[in-house]
Structure formats: C-alpha cells, structure tokens
Amino acid sequence: MKLHASGEGYLEAILVMHKRIDMVRSVDVARHIKEIDHQKRE
Hints:
mainly alpha
C-alpha cells in the first residue's frame, strides 16, 4: 500500500502522541501537526 506524505505524517503523529498519552483524538493530532508545521516554517 502506497501512502502520500500527508498520510504518513498523520500516522506518525498518532504514533508519537500515543507514546505520550493513551487516547489520541483527531483534534489532538491536528494540533500536533499544526505545531510541527509551524516549527518547520520558522
């Protein structure tokens, strides 16, 4: 199965967050991705 970069980033964000907290919500993933994107732009 081939993943696009956005799908890969989404799954990676879920994995990273799941290591910190047990339950990961889509809202939390969106915030995490937004933070990462903001850091890359700086």
